[in-house]
Design a protein that fits this description.
The complex is a heterodimer.
Chain A (H helix, E strand, L loop, with lengths): L5 H8 L2 E7 L2 E7 L5 H8 L18 E4 L2 E4 L12 E3 L1 H7 L3 H9 L9 H14 L5 H7 L11 H20 L1
Parallel strand pairs in A: 1-5
Antiparallel strand pairs in A: 1-2, 3-4, 3-5
Chain B lengths: L23 H5 L15 E7 L5 E7 L1 H5 L3 E5 L1 H5 L27 E2 L5 E7 L2 H8 L3 E6 L6 H5 L14 E8 L3 H7 L2 E13 L7 E7 L4 E6 L4 H12 L6 E4 L15 H13 L3 E4 L2 H7 L2 E13 L5 E11 L12 H9 L8 E9 L14 H19 L3 H8 L8 E2 L5 E2 L4 H12 L1 H13 L3 E13 L17 E7 L5 E5 L8 H13 L6 E4 L17 H28 L6 E4 L2 E4 L5 E4 H10 L13 E6 L7 E13 L6 E11 L6 H20 L29 E6 L17 H17 L9 E2 L3 H7 L4
Parallel strand pairs in B: 1-12, 8-29, 10-11, 14-15, 20-21, 27-28
Antiparallel strand pairs in B: 1-5, 2-4, 2-6, 3-5, 7-15, 8-13, 9-10, 9-12, 13-14, 16-17, 18-26, 19-20, 19-25, 22-23, 23-24, 26-27
The chains are: A alpha+beta, B alpha+beta.
């Protein structure tokens, strides 16, 4: 590359104002068009629970809920999310939406370093809203885009399985 | 119906109990504080321009335009950092004759692998720094390069380091004698050459560092995603000439390490220098592609091995040659030869034989460095040994369990010294072998296999026994001149409210260090675990120690905590005895209360002792100085290592049409001595096995002929994901070490040690009907189809 790219650099540096509803609160921030959603969440909004692991949608560490669906925050530019409702691990924790999953992960030690864990929880949450009683095979399949180097996955599968069971038993009782 | 009381029924008995990790709730809530999350006031961001060539001369670097870009604060080349940083050499004195070229944060005139950092840019943001990288011009003159082991050993070939006479980093030999005679008289000899590809740690959080040099006081604070903060405190101090007490290394939450995060990396050293040059905090977080080309890789061995057996199938001798290629330098400060050294010393470790000979050759090549990664050397020694044992079983018509039962060192035959010189205190191969046989329901599996084979379904069963090195003593690194501690330290205080604060040098990377230390302290002192706060990973706060590597957290760190707690308890009871007019020996502590040791009647809460000691010392007898903080260090003595052992089993299916392998179930019986937290031990085993399965089936750093890493992303480099991984069945045997009061040994590497050996044996077992064999790891579908002559 050479100096002729200066115009290009100026363009990408110019920020755009975007607005989201993040974890239930309206927020606005100035982002460069090239900035990804994960960078915006982590840097501008200081929501560091969402992690960047591979920056190409392969590891699942950056999963957040966008308008109710799990998406890779590393595969999306922040400007693309303008107007969206975004829930990160921090918001899902505060709302109590995943409290049972978190408790079961804790009880079974379904995490070690914890870096993959927010993405795992977002994905598990999504899975259980789609399928009430997934089989172990279905749980493994649903998590097949979430990389964990520490646990060997089994405790994570066990924890999700246990929550699915508990939730559907509760559902059956009402 | 009441079960008999066990030691776990005592009050405050936490050793041996599956309690959750106290720090895990924070991580589950997204409140981890990883180094990549840290942002300091006035912080700047570094990015590195990397070499596109595996070997080239740097003719000229033009940084003018990059330096002029708005938002750029500094562009630094090798010479800029060489002015303030002394070079490092990755050799150890006890590896006689070992060589490696001096290294600097950034190279001065030559690059030696594709991906090596050449120029650093520091800017207001990582994006601006990366923009600036594109404005840097470097003229390179390509040099001849060596990529593979054979090319590197070719006497007339290119030299990785032109100042040396060849590409040999280190040669070593072991010979217990009479090997040729043993082979000459053997009834059976089996022989194989096995190769092991390069793979890498792929921690989910890449390497991350924030260096913060304060010129006003000449002090350096480094937030560093590392396992070994004390080692880096020492290194930053010595290489940048900053007094040690003014260097602080903080390692808070670490997103995976596995040995990868304890080596010196050029970029990390550079970031410290950049912060010194600028007097401002500088952050660097490797992205995934950078991780693939600059994190240490591991393995990359080619082993030729022979085993001699008598007519009954008893192993007589082994003869081994290990060639390993380590990249352009030996890593600092632990070197890149430890793996090869452990390969030749762990060979045949579970078995009773006398005659052993091995040659090791460690070779440079134009690739990134290889070095210590989880289960250093174990998977290779184990795979070679266990493959030969299976080959011998086939030759003799013995079952894999039967040949191992015939050859493992008997459980009552310890202590033993291996023919490679390792001293084993007490291992349990026989009981583990028997337990695995039961756990696998082996006879049923074999019957099922035979039945399915008739229907064209090809399943394989593989087993592999292993010995794991844990709790290394000063003889490991210290003897070679490395300033790497084998001791650990703890500072334990009773707080004024009667709670306990434990500062300890072993570090937490998610394996549960803080949990087990709080269990040990609570158990030994007699308080509830939630009243114990454990603090790790800050050299300014925690005492110096080795921290977490080579499975020393529980065995050495745990023993340190145990001894420190006993000292604190003695002090508390001395004060209590003065107040209560008793003998200290007549008192004990249960649930935070001082009690009568015999009747267990409560006398007074320890919080009351703390209150009196801290606030009303005037009421204590004259001359009393209450010591409610104790500082204690512990270094292993006795055996140089606490060896552990176990055995793994694997059941898998090979699709002979596609070459795909599906692992159906994996089994492990493991003996790590005293188990402190069974749940955490199981997690270590499962995680370790999956790392081993990844190496066995998927993971390989693949290079082109020009030394380019061609699969440096998570789309191209396959790691084990949930769908491919099996459920893992675990059994425990406990043989505590008598070297410590606690009796714990390590467990973190046991899973990785034998997983690939197991898979190798299982795949070869599945291929028996085809007369096809696999002798290379990872076992990819292509290799399976090639072995089947279908590709």
């Amino acid at each position: 590359m050479n100096g002729s790219d200066e115009t290009l650099l100026d363009d990408v540096d110019e920020t755009v104002r975007v607005r989201f509803i993040v974890n239930g609160r309206k927020v606005a921030c100035e982002v460069a068009p090239r900035e990804t959603l994960v960078d915006c969440l982590r840097n501008a909004l200081e929501l560091t629970g969402t992690h960047a692991g591979c920056e190409m949608g392969a590891c699942g560490a950056c999963l957040v809920q966008l308008d109710g669906r799990a998406v890779h925050a590393c595969l999306m530019f922040a400007v693309q999310a303008d107007g969206a409702k975004i829930d990160t691990i921090e918001g899902l924790t505060e709302s109590g939406a995943i409290a049972d999953l978190q408790a079961e992960f804790h009880r079974r030690n379904a995490l070690q370093c914890g870096f993959c864990t927010p993405g795992m929880l977002v994905n598990a949450h999504e899975l259980l809203t789609q399928i009430a009683r997934p089989s172990r095979e279905e749980i493994r399949d649903a998590l097949s885009g979430n990389y964990c180097r520490c646990t060997g996955y089994e405790a994570i599968i066990d924890a999700i399985d246990a929550v699915a069971k508990a939730r559907s038993e509760e559902g059956g009782a009402t | 119906m009441s079960a008999p009381l066990t030691s776990l029924d005592r009050p405050n008995s936490y050793i041996g109990r599956s309690v959750p990790r106290p720090n895990a709730k924070r991580l589950l809530a997204g409140r981890g504080r990883y180094i990549s999350d840290i942002r300091l006031p006035r912080m700047l961001y570094a990015a590195f321009l990397r070499s596109p060539y595996a070997h080239a001369k740097i003719v000229a670097i033009n940084v003018e335009q990059a330096g002029a870009l708005e938002g750029v604060h500094l562009v630094a080349v090798g010479a800029d950092l060489a002015k303030i940083c002394t070079p490092w050499i990755g050799t150890l004195d006890h590896f006689k004759g070992m060589t490696s070229a001096p290294q600097l944060p950034l190279p001065l005139d030559r690059v030696v692998w594709a991906g090596q950092a050449v120029v650093a840019v520091v800017a207001d943001s990582r994006a601006i720094a990366e923009d600036a990288l594109e404005l840097i011009e470097i003229d390179y003159e390509e040099l001849p390069l060596v990529v593979d082991i054979d090319g590197a050993r070719d006497p007339g070939g290119p030299l990785v380091n032109p100042d040396s006479v060849n590409n040999v980093c280190f040669r070593s030999q072991l010979d217990s004698g009479a090997v040729d005679e043993a082979f000459a008289h053997a009834a059976h000899v089996v022989e194989e050459e096995l190769s092991f590809g390069r793979h890498t740690a792929v921690t989910l959080e890449p390497r991350a560092i924030v260096a913060d040099y304060d010129p006003a006081v000449g002090a350096l604070t480094v937030h560093h995603a590392t396992q070994t903060p004390y080692q880096f405190q020492d290194l930053y101090s010595r290489h940048y000439g900053i007094p040690e007490a003014r260097v602080r290394v903080i390692a808070t939450d670490i997103g995976g390490s596995f040995g990868m995060k304890l080596h010196v990396y050029h970029e990390d050293m550079a970031v410290v220098g950049l912060s010194i040059l600028l007097g401002r905090p500088v952050k660097y977080v490797a992205d995934r592609i950078e991780s693939f080309v600059s994190d240490i890789h591991a393995r990359d061995h080619r082993v030729h091995a022979r085993m001699a057996l008598d007519a009954k199938g008893e192993i007589l001798a082994m003869d081994v040659v290990d060639l390993t290629a380590i990249g352009a330098f030996s890593t600092y400060p632990r070197t890149s030869v430890v793996e090869g050294n452990q390969v030749i010393r762990l060979m045949g470790a579970p078995y009773r034989f006398k005659n052993y000979r091995a040659a090791l050759e460690v070779i440079f090549q134009n690739k990134v460095q290889t070095s210590q990664y989880r289960a250093v050397g174990h998977p290779i020694a184990c795979a070679v040994t266990e493959r030969l044992v299976d080959m011998a079983a086939a030759k003799l018509g013995l079952d894999p369990f039967a040949i191992r039962a015939r050859n493992v060192i008997a459980d009552d035959a310890y202590p033993q010294t291996s023919p490679t010189g390792y001293r084993f205190e007490a291992l349990s191969h026989q009981v583990c072998l028997k337990r695995l046989h039961e756990m696998m329901d082996y006879d049923t599996l074999r019957a099922e296999q035979a039945e399915l084979r008739k229907r064209g379904i090809h399943r394989g069963i593989g087993i592999a026994a292993f010995v794991e090195i844990t709790n290394p003593s000063p003889a490991f690194y210290g003897v070679g001149g490395a300033r790497i501690s084998s001791q650990d330290g703890a500072i334990l205080s009773l707080t004024p409210s009667g709670e306990v604060r434990c500062l300890i040098s072993v570090t937490e990377q998610g394996q549960g260090t803080e949990a087990i230390i709080s269990q040990i302290v609570a158990d030994q002192l007699g308080v509830a675990q939630e009243h114990v706060k454990v603090i790790t990973g800050d050299t300014e706060v925690t005492p110096h120690g080795g921290a977490t590597w080579a499975c020393r957290g529980a065995g050495i760190g745990g023993e340190t905590a145990l001894q420190a707690t006993r000292a604190l308890k003695r002090n508390i009871l001395e004060i209590a005895a003065l107040i209560l007019q008793e003998q200290p020996s007549s008192l004990d502590i249960i649930d935070g209360e001082v009690v009568d040791a015999v009747t267990r009647n409560q006398r007074m809460p320890i919080s009351e002792i703390a209150r009196i000691a801290y606030f009303r010392s005037d009421t204590l007898p004259p001359g009393t100085q209450a010591q409610l903080t104790v500082s204690h260090h512990f270094a292993p003595q006795g055996y140089p290592f606490a060896f552990t052992n176990g055995i793994q089993g694997c059941s898998l299916e090979v699709d002979v049409e596609t070459g795909f392998i599906k692992v159906l179930k994996h089994f492990i019986v493991e003996d790590c001595g005293r188990v402190i937290n069974p749940m955490l031990v199981d997690e270590q085993l499962r995680g370790g096995i999956v790392q081993g399965l990844g190496a066995a089936l998927f993971e390989e750093c693949r290079y082109s002929e020009t030394g380019q890493l061609v699969n440096g992303s998570l789309a191209d480099y396959l790691v084990p994901m949930p769908m491919e991984m099996p459920d893992i069945v675990i059994g425990h045997v406990e043989t505590p070490t008598a070297d410590t009061e606690l009796g714990a040994k390590g467990v973190g590497e046991a899973g990785t040690a034998a997983a690939s050996a197991c898979v190798l044996n299982a795949v070869n077992d599945a291929l028996v009907p085809f007369d096809a064999t696999i002798n290379s790891i990872p076992i990819t579908p292509t290799k399976v189809l090639k072995a089947l002559k279908r590709f």
